[in-house]
């Protein structure tokens, strides 16, 4: 029984580069403001108010469409999507629709992800521009426990892009890689700042081939995405294995219980009654306009990865991780290399050590980058270059800086440096030779067994001994041994 | 003091600024005698507040820096937002709504020193043609108190006709300025769609709504249009149109110099469903115009027979969308929310707050937009709309104006039309064309039949208000019946 | 052209539409409303007489220069103005109904 998984994602991203909302001149910077202090007649849906399009939003949307290789429609049409909800001030959302008399700003396109060493293309179905609703606050914490809601319209009207994929994604890992790549593209474009809370929201549609599709909403972060998808796939698989039918429905991800819960079935069907918004005339998008925007495109992730490979001699893998993990990580890489060179080493530190430690410590990438900043990173590189530390110790340094937020020079002062005192090392070697006579005999016959002896010396010196020196001395001794016997 | 027209009042007050206060006293005097009979106003401002505003205008008059409309008292239809002044749309659901902002047209009037005297009665949310659908009370026709004044801008028309204001603003989606103007003996102008900003106009059908003046003469309407027209950065559908002269200048030219114009009558607007007395009056008027160098041709355009259903499908669809926002949370009729789900509370608020006609139109509008019916109704109606617009715009390349009776009937008695929705919708048959096509239209008084006013409608091509005002002003000067004064107020005015 | 419509069918979709539009119809209103609706739908159906296959729909009269907005912040409503017509407020928030 094959359980081929099909996942399609619906990602809503805020165009955080804008100063104002999509259809009114209120500030788009609503975070942290007291409720209902960042509103006007338009975004509050007061009677008689009318929307006026922020032209810069269109430019930003076109940038994204170009970066995703999508085909941009030659006319921009907005559509009203009707449903009643307390966070929707007009009880309709100004959005876009793929149907008669309407069109999304762009259709088609793709993003390439690197999965298991090969490149996989995830296709984009469409990109919409739409407005964000307001925010609902639940006074007693959860939706279920609150007998009423509290509504704040500060966010209402902020510009969103809805990016919908084809169901080309086949695993939770691919989903994560896709969202990471998309985030990196958006960040490199300067369109969305992923550090802002709520700037990227993901809904997923999951089905097992041959069975019904389930929508999962309320996935808060990238980490939650993989967990939610893994759970849901397991849930559906279990149903199918036991001979049951997967119900077509909408479920919510509950991150405290780590499960998906069925959203209570609404009493009525969803019929959005789309029609072109009569308050917003259709806007021509001509070649010239698109070319103007294209000329302002910055370096995109795929281009940057290629450049990292060529310019810094990095492997494709290292370059990809640096760029797609986060723009900030790639930026740190380039800043550091500009200061202290050693591109391959810096890349390796960031990808192989740094990322591992922030994961273990449960830190966000940004917190991690604050700790392992350019100065600290470069001092570590310098310490290695000067031979004060060995590569083995370097790993320890990175770990300490990330986990404990210390300066490298503090670690030097604590004595965490390479042991190059020849006499001391010789004494340790002697000890090891005595303890492991058999290993010594082995080593005489089989040079590979020397590693064991080196390892023991390293153990006894708690990693501080310079492995090269230890190796040298052991070999010399063994040779002397041989000669004398 | 001469007060028969808006221009008269402006001139009088400019010559002798002190007469402004007399004028205000006089107007309130008329109101106290007439208002409880006609009930044009939902909210009438206190005389004290109006006198305070007048003091400011007076100061500017003395200094010589007063605006174009200094001295005038303008009544505003109650679906146009006025900051700090209750705006109800004649609906229970907005009975206590006070807008925190002024509509653009109100800002413009105030900038020219017009004084807002009050908010007038209307059909609820502008849905109706007789003002009988107001949730509060009906307005009566000052020419015959047992008859309707027309709608939906009935209150504005009556305020103007009965001298309870110098002039008024109404709104027109399917004839709501022209119908009451015709029934009450006023001039009513619906501008080209987009010429006047809709910002602050509480929407009924967004692709057809327009604000326009209701006045006693064509020149009065032209001056108000000069003040309220113009592009607005807050209304995406507004137009940036420039004319070489002011609208008032075009109107003055028309009456002063005359104009050799080619007019056309579309048979279907005169022969079908039009009451005999209206038909005869219209033919008499045409003869009179022909004797004054206006060339009038007759033509048939069967496509316009489909205008009425197309109009109502589109209007109801857009209305159902525009009225979705009324749920009691941010403004308007409110019910306690605690412990109740949104769909429960919203439905109850809307069911209590909306009147019968409004509910009917919202339901039908929802239906024609719903999945499975959108193509058969809304999309189809939009296609018919294009056919009608193309037909009219093409016709108006050959002719300067299309001429017709404004209304197919004399003002009906209260209660007569409202029982049957189709009977009610049918009286819009000649007026909806201009809204569907987006072209300007004006109704001017042309006759009195059995003591009741009859209106003549003229439509010109879009953004040809210059031509429209010139020709209608000329016709007005030929017919010589404006300004009309209803017997009810005659003794107060002369 | 009258297309005969079944009373019961109409009553059913009035129920469905009233849920979509969130407008309750009382039983006593139902009878009259149903009759009116049938009349009006027949009136709408008159448009079927026309062949509109190759006609582009007109949603708005065409505009040469669209009105658009540059990305500059402008003052909106004060908190007082925004909440002026709100009947139930809590700490600056608007009190709303449950969402389940």
What's the helix and strand layout?
The complex is a heterotrimer of chains A (485), B (494) and C (100).
Chain A: E1 5-14, H1 55-67, E2 71-72, E3 75-76, E4 79-82, E5 92-95, E6 106-107, E7 110-115, E8 118-131, E9 135-137, E10 149-152, E11 159-165, H2 172-189, E12 200-208, E13 213-219, H3 222-241, E14 249-254, E15 259-262, E16 275-276, E17 283-284, H4 287-295, H5 301-312, H6 316-325, H7 327-340, H8 343-361, H9 365-371, H10 374-385, H11 391-404, H12 408-413, H13 422-435, H14 437-445, H15 450-460, H16 467-484
Helix pairs in contact in A: 2-3, 5-6, 6-7, 6-8, 7-8, 7-10, 8-11, 10-11, 13-15, 13-16, 15-16
Chain B: H1 6-15, H2 19-38, E1 41-44, H3 47-63, E2 73-77, H4 104-111, E3 115-120, H5 154-161, E4 167-172, H6 178-184, E5 187-190, E6 210-215, H7 218-228, H8 247-257, E7 262-266, H9 276-290, E8 295-299, H10 307-322, H11 342-353, H12 356-369, H13 375-398, E9 401-405, H14 421-426, H15 432-437, E10 441-449, E11 452-459, H16 465-479, H17 487-493
Parallel strand pairs in B: 2-3, 2-4, 7-8, 7-9
Antiparallel strand pairs in B: 1-3, 4-6, 5-6, 5-10, 9-11, 10-11
Chain C: H1 7-20, H2 27-44, H3 79-83, E1 89-90, E2 93-96
Antiparallel strand pairs in C: 1-2
Helix pairs in contact in C: 1-2
């Amino acid at each position: 029984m094959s359980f081929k998984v099909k996942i399609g994602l619906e990602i809503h991203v805020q165009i955080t580069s804008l100063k104002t909302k999509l259809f009114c001149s209120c500030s788009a910077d609503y975070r942290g403001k007291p409720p209902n202090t960042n509103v006007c007649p338009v975004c509050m849906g007061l009677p008689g108010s009318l929307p006026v399009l922020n032209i810069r939003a269109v430019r930003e949307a076109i940038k994204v469409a170009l970066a995703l290789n999508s085909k941009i429609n030659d006319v921009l049409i907005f559509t009203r999507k009707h449903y009643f909800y307390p966070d929707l001030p007009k009880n309709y959302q100004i959005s876009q629709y793929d149907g008669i008399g309407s069109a999304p700003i762009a259709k088609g396109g793709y993003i390439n992800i690197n999965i298991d060493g090969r490149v996989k293309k995830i296709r984009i179905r469409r990109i919409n521009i739409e407005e964000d609703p307001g925010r609902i606050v639940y006074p007693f914490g959860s939706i279920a426990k609150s007998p009423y809601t509290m509504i704040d319209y500060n966010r209402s009207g902020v510009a969103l892009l809805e990016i919908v994929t084809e169901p080309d994604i086949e695993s939770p890992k691919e989903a994560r890689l896709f969202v990471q790549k998309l985030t990196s593209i958006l960040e490199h474009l300067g369109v969305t700042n992923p550090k802002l809370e709520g700037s990227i929201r993901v809904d997923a549609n999951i089905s097992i081939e041959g069975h019904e599709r389930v929508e999962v909403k309320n996935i808060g972060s990238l980490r939650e995405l993989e967990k939610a998808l893994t759970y849901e796939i397991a849930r559906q698989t279990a149903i199918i294995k036991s001979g049951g039918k997967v119900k077509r429905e909408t479920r919510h991800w509950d991150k405290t219980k780590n499960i998906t819960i069925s959203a209570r079935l609404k009493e009525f069907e969803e019929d959005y009654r789309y029609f072109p918004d009569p308050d917003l005339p259709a806007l021509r998008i001509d070649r010239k306009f698109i070319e103007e925007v294209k000329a302002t495109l910055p370096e995109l992730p795929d281009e940057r990865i290629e450049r990292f490979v060529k310019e810094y001699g990095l492997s494709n893998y290292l370059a990809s991780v640096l760029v797609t993990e986060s723009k900030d990580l790639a930026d740190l890489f380039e800043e550091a290399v500009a200061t202290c060179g050693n591109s391959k080493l810096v890349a390796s530190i960031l990808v192989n050590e740094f990322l591992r430690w922030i994961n273990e410590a449960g830190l966000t990438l940004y917190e991690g980058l604050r700790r392992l900043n350019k100065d600290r990173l470069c001092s570590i590189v310098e310490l290695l270059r000067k031979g004060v530390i060995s590569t083995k110790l370097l790993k320890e340094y990175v770990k300490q800086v990330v986990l404990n937020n210390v300066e490298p020079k503090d670690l030097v002062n604590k004595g965490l440096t390479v042991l190059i005192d020849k006499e001391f090392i010789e004494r340790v070697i002697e000890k090891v030779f005595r303890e492991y006579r058999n290993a010594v005999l082995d080593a005489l016959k089989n040079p590979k067994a020397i590693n064991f002896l080196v390892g023991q010396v390293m153990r006894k010196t708690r990693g501080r001994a310079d492995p090269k020196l230890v190796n040298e001395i052991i070999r010399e001794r063994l040779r002397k041994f041989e000669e004398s016997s | 003091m001469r007060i028969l027209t808006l221009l008269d009042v402006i001139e009088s007050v400019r010559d002798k600024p002190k007469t402004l206060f007399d004028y205000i006293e006089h107007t309130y005097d008329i109101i106290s005698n007439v208002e409880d009979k006609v009930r044009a106003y939902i909210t009438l401002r206190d005389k004290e507040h109006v006198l305070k505003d007048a003091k400011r205008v007076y100061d500017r008059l003395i200094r010589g820096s007063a605006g174009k409309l200094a001295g005038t008292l303008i009544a505003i239809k109650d679906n146009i937002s006025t900051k700090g002044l209750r705006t109800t749309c004649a609906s229970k659901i907005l009975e206590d709504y006070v807008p925190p902002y002024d509509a653009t047209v109100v800002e413009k009037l105030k900038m020219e020193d017009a004084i807002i005297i009050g908010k007038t009665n209307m059909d609820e949310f502008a849905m109706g043609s007789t003002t009988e659908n107001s949730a509060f009370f009906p307005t009566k026709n000052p020419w015959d108190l047992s008859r309707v004044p027309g709608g939906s801008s009935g209150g504005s028309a009556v305020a103007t006709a009965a001298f309870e204001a110098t002039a008024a603003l109404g709104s027109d989606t399917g004839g709501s300025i022209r119908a009451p103007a015709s029934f009450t003996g006023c001039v009513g102008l619906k501008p080209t769609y987009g010429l006047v900003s809709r910002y602050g106009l509480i929407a009924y059908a967004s692709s057809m709504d327009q604000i326009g003046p209701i006045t006693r003469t064509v020149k009065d309407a032209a001056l108000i249009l000069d003040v309220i027209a113009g592009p607005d950065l807050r209304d995406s559908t507004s137009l940036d149109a420039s004319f070489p002269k002011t609208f008032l200048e075009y109107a003055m030219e028309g009456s002063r110099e005359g104009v050799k114009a080619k007019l056309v009558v579309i048979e279907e607007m005169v022969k079908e469903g039009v009451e005999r007395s209206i038909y005869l009056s219209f033919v008499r008027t045409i003869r009179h115009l022909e004797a004054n160098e206006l060339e009038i041709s007759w033509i048939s355009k069967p496509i316009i027979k489909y205008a009425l259903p197309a109009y109502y499908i589109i209007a109801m669809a857009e209305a159902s969308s525009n009225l979705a926002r009324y749920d009691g949370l941010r403004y308007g009729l409110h019910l306690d929310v605690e412990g109740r789900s949104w769909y429960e509370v919203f439905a109850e608020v809307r069911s209590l707050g909306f009147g019968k006609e409004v509910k009917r139109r919202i339901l039908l509008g929802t239906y024609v937009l719903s999945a499975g019916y959108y193509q058969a109704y809304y999309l189809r109606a939009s296609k018919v709309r294009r056919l009608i617009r193309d037909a009219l715009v093409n016709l108006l390349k050959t002719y300067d104006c299309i001429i017709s009776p404004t209304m197919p009937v004399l003002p009906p008695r209260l209660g007569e039309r409202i029982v049957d929705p189709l009977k009610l919708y049918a009286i819009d048959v000649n007026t909806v064309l201009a809204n569907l096509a987006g072209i300007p239209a004006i109704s001017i008084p042309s006759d009195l039949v059995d003591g009741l006013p009859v209106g003549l409608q003229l439509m010109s091509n879009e953004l040809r208000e210059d031509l429209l005002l010139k020709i209608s002003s000329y016709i007005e000067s030929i017919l010589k019946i404006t300004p009309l004064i209803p017997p009810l107020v005659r003794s107060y005015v002369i | 052209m009258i297309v005969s419509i079944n009373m019961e069918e109409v009553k059913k979709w009035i129920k469905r539409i009233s849920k979509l539009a969130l407008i309750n119809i009382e039983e006593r209103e139902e009878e009259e409303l149903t009759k009116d609706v049938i009349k009006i739908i027949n009136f709408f159906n008159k448009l079927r007489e026309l062949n509109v296959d190759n006609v582009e729909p007109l949603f708005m009269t065409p505009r040469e220069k669209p009105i658009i907005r540059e990305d500059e912040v402008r003052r909106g409503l004060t908190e007082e103005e925004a909440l002026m017509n709100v009947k139930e407020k809590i700490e600056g928030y608007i009190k709303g109904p449950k969402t389940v």
